[in-house]
């Protein structure tokens, strides 16, 4: 997974807005790292509600990305 894909995933997670994404990326340095850290590391970030952390942990990342690539392919987006 690339940082760009990780950022697309973070933007797709319900309850995760731009402010939360910026806070997480500032804390962990890259969008990819946000998705790689364990749950307890996410909980250590100030101002991130437990509900949002659960959304991040439970989001079906691989399925989402595959669906996005399939959609792009169907519409001939390169």
List the main descriptive attributes of the protein structure presented here:
78 residues; elongated
Explain this structure to me?
The structure is a single chain. The chain has helices spanning 3-12, 18-28, 31-36, 39-43, 50-58, 61-74. With 78 residues, the protein is an all-alpha fold. The two termini are 17 Å apart. The model has no long low-confidence stretch (mean pLDDT 93).
Instruction: Give the mean pLDDT.
Output: 93
Structural class: mainly alpha
Apparent shape: elongated
Radius of gyration: 13 Å
Q: Strand-and-helix sequence, N→C? A: HHHHHH
Number of helices: 6
Specify the helix fraction band. Answer: over 70%
Low-confidence region ranges: none
In short:
With 78 residues, the chain is mainly alpha-helical. The protein contains six helices and no strands. The longest helix has 14 residues, at 61-74.
Task: Detail the topology: elements first, then pairings.
Elements lengths: L2 H10 L5 H11 L2 H6 L2 H5 L6 H9 L2 H14 L4
């Amino acid at each position: 997974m690339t940082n760009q894909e990780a950022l697309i995933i973070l933007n797709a997670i319900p309850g995760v807005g731009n402010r939360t994404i910026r806070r997480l990326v500032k804390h962990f340095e890259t969008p990819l790292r946000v998705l790689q850290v364990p749950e307890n590391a996410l909980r250590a970030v100030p101002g991130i509600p437990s509900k949002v952390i659960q959304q991040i942990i439970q989001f079906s990342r691989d399925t989402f990305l595959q669906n996005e690539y399939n959609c792009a392919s169907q519409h001939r987006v390169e």
